[in-house]
Design a protein that fits this description.
Chain lengths: 258, 513
């Protein structure tokens, strides 16, 4: 299962990496070959501006993956930090931070992201990253807190403390490696949720700006052409599904290993 | 994100329930409306789909363009517009102007009747003017009447004195719809003098108008019109396909593509607005005329219309559109022919041999403008200009671009909401408050001043044309098109005419037998 996931993800990653440097056509080049079905010339057809869909998917895959990666990295880093402090120390630190965490979680995720994007200003890759990573922090914090609370009073922690190890050293040198069975699946699920959330935000028109491509933005562009150019929405949708499916399989596989 | 899904599933259940209740109601309502509307089979009926409900049926209170568009058929002023862009006498039979342009005399037409059968008198006219001027009813006050010094009635003559000559005055009179003196029920049962009279309104559902048989002018060709309110754009298309409505205006080309061309005609009018890549003439590099001209040569306007608008649209070359035929200078349309090489040469001459970077700020809720910007950015890339698109919400656009003029370039459409060229051209005067492009040209200011003070219409028209030439020659903006207004009508519906105003004249529409 993990192997299949790795293969699919590798293909997607290669596509995105190649897309960053080379695409069959310029991903912004408009032409009079509008709304053409898949052919030898345009493997996945063209969109309403006559742009090559394959080129845009290759480019958009990179945008979407980098947004998802950055989002998860920031969200997981800060979430782990909060989770470690609250889980390890407990007491009033735990209570205050976790109630705050609950308050943030109480907002519907999407609404919160929309709110943040409208404050930061829409239309750029970075505002999406900021919005989504802030939204993702509480989830990671909660998961990591329970791991840390579970491990905090184990014998190896007590012996480390007796040997004079500082709190920071215990938290990140000794405890962190023991949380991987939870952290890894959380990361992959987080990545997938970020891909879908980016698609959602761009679908609502507050993601990346044209003529940039991202999978979510392309999906929203293709919705009005669902009758006249079904290949457009299908190929973009398939790209999103494969990306999420591949990473999802890796996550499931690593959970099974652990 | 699991939270999102949980939230959604709960929402779905709720939405599903609401949808069920609404559906039940819709069927119940559909049942009753059917019984009433098909009572008389000899009556000719045309159904028109519209996208929004009416904000007010009182002609002095209505604000929404979509309301004015329809109520145009129920109400008239002393004068009214024609489809050619002229202003002709309506409730008045004759209009004379004194030589100094300060006194207008309107002679009331004989036999003009209100929808309740009473004759229109000078008192009604005075009442209508006062209601729009005295400010007792603040919602009815019309700012464009501020030049009026006095309104007096003498037998069947209405004499209006102005404080200064104004060629826009008649356009303002057009909006003083004549209503019966002291009638307090305009909102629930409107009464006017137009070719169609009110019959029935169901809030958020429909409005029915029937022909007014005692109309002074040419009679309407159809007995009854039903305006059905369908607030989602998908619902409008579905209603056309199912036969529930016969006519829908303001469609996108994507929507028209879903219609069967054997059953529907797609008519093309124009939106009567000047869509352009508006440039902030005060910031670098657009303070340089060579750069602006280079942009004009770099943009292939026909390709913009073909690629982003399926070929629907009228190419423009200046701040005026052809439906204002009186003012439109045709030869300006192709003053700049698409020529990327010339654009590159001009850029080199201006000191930008390698191009430059620029930002196009576009309101994100206007898909046509976003699409236009997308295609233009690609064309500019061909001549070495790196144009990036910045999407902002409408509020931000109004504040940052339109009000504070804190932008480089933008794509938008500028319209004239009354029948005068002034609105379109006055905004480029260097000291004018809504000159959001910061266009500053001393010659333009001089001609504009002359034009605004000119009382003779034909001289003023020539001056307006000079202003258009000035804008084009100095490449004030990259003018693109007057966007198309697509109307889908069933094959058997004929007689629809377009106006240079946002109105739908139903009096000429009929169903072919």
């Amino acid at each position: 299962m993990k192997k299949a996931g790795l293969i699919i993800t590798a293909i997607m990653l290669v596509l995105a990496l190649v897309g960053a440097f080379w695409t069959p056509y310029s991903y912004t080049a408009v032409s009079y070959d509008r709304l053409q079905g898949p052919s030898a010339k345009h493997v996945l057809g063209t969109d309403n501006f006559g742009r090559d869909i394959l080129s845009r998917i290759m480019k958009g895959m990179g945008t979407t993956m980098s947004i998802a990666f950055l989002t998860v990295a920031i969200g997981a880093f800060l979430g782990t930090l909060i989770g470690a402090v609250t889980g390890y120390y407990g007491g009033w630190v735990d209570r205050i931070l976790m109630r705050f965490n609950d308050a943030v979680t109480a907002f519907p995720t999407f609404l919160l992201a929309l709110l943040i994007v409208s404050i930061v200003g829409p239309g750029s890759k970075y505002s999406v990253v900021i919005a989504l990573s802030l939204v993702f922090i509480p989830g990671f914090a909660r998961v990591m807190r329970s791991e840390y609370a579970f491990l905090a009073n184990r014998n190896f922690v007590i012996s480390a403390r007796l040997m004079g190890a500082g709190d920071a050293r215990i938290m990140f040198r000794y405890l962190l490696p023991n949380t991987t069975r939870t952290l890894l699946p959380a990361l992959t699920i987080g990545f997938n949720n970020a891909v879908l959330a980016e698609a959602g935000l761009s679908f609502l028109g507050i993601g990346v700006s044209p003529p940039d491509a991202s999978l979510g933005y392309m999906l929203s562009e293709s919705q009005s052409l669902i009758v006249s150019a079904p290949w457009y929405v299908l190929s973009v949708g398939l790209a999103i599904v494969l990306l999420v499916f591949g990473v999802g399989l890796i996550g499931e596989g690593s959970k099974a290993d652990a | 994100m699991s939270l999102l899904f949980r939230y959604n599933s709960r929402m779905t259940k709720k939405v599903g329930f609401i949808a069920f209740v609404v559906l039940c109601l819709v069927f119940a309502l559909a049942g009753c409306s059917k019984n009433t509307s098909e009572s008389n089979s000899n009556e000719s009926v045309v159904a028109i789909g519209i996208a929004q409900d009416f904000d007010s049926l009182d002609p002095h209170h209505m604000q929404a363009a979509g309301t004015k568009e329809i109520l145009f058929n129920m109400f008239e002023g002393l004068v009214k517009p024609t489809s050619d862009g002229d202003i002709v006498p309506a409730v008045a039979s004759q209009v004379t102007k004194s030589d100094d342009g300060l006194v207008y005399t309107f002679t009331l037409r004989d036999n003009v009747k209100f929808h309740d059968g009473k004759a229109v008198t000078a008192k009604d006219v005075l009442y209508s003017f006062n209601r729009r001027m005295d400010g007792k009813d603040s919602a009815a006050k019309l700012a464009s009447l501020s030049v009026v010094k006095s309104v007096e009635a003498n037998d069947n003559k209405i004499i209006i004195t102005l404080s200064q000559p104004s060629n826009e005055f008649l356009a303002a009179v057009m909006n003083v719809y004549i209503i019966p003196e002291g009638y307090g029920n305009q909102e629930s049962f409107p009464i006017g003098t137009g070719p169609y009279r009110f019959s029935k309104r169901v809030f958020q559902d429909s409005l029915e108008l029937v022909r007014f048989d005692e109309y002074w002018g040419e009679q309407g060709k159809t007995d009854k019109f039903v305006f059905r309110i369908l607030e989602s754009s998908d619902a409008l298309v579905l209603a056309l396909q199912s036969g529930a409505v016969d006519v829908v205006s303001h469609l996108t080309s994507d929507q028209t593509k879903q219609l069967d061309t054997n059953k529907f005609d797609i008519l093309t009018g124009s939106m009567n607005l000047v869509q352009a890549l508006y440039l902030n003439n005060a910031v670098k590099p657009f303070d340089n005329i060579l750069v602006r001209q280079a942009l004009c040569y770099a943009v292939d306007r026909k390709a913009v219309i073909d690629l982003a608008f399926d070929g629907y649209g009228i190419i423009l070359g200046t701040s005026m559109f052809p439906s204002f035929s009186k003012y439109y200078v045709d030869e300006l349309t192709n003053y700049y022919q698409y020529n990327p090489q010339k654009a590159k040469d001009l850029l080199k001459e201006a000191g930008y041999p390698n191009g430059f970077s620029m930002t196009i700020t576009v309101p994100s809720n206007y898909t046509p403008h976003v699409n236009t910007a997308t295609v233009i950015a690609e064309m500019l890339r061909q001549v070495g200009i790196d144009a990036s698109i910045q999407l902002v919400d409408w509020g931000t656009w109004l504040e940052e671009v339109y009000t504070k003029r804190n932008y480089q370039s933008t794509v938008t459409g500028v319209s004239s909401d009354n029948m005068t060229a002034r609105k379109l051209l006055e905004r480029f005067g260097s000291t004018v408050g809504n000159n959001f492009t910061n266009y500053s040209n001393s010659q333009y200011d001089q001609i504009l001043q002359k034009a605004l003070n000119e009382a003779e219409d034909s001289v003023q028209t020539e001056l307006y044309k000079d202003l258009e030439r000035n804008l084009t020659e100095n490449a004030a903006n990259v003018y693109i098109q007057d966007m198309a207004d697509l109307v889908a009508v069933k094959k058997d519906i004929k007689g629809l005419t377009f106006y240079p105003l946002y109105v739908l004249d139903i009096s000429t529409i009929y169903r072919e037998k």
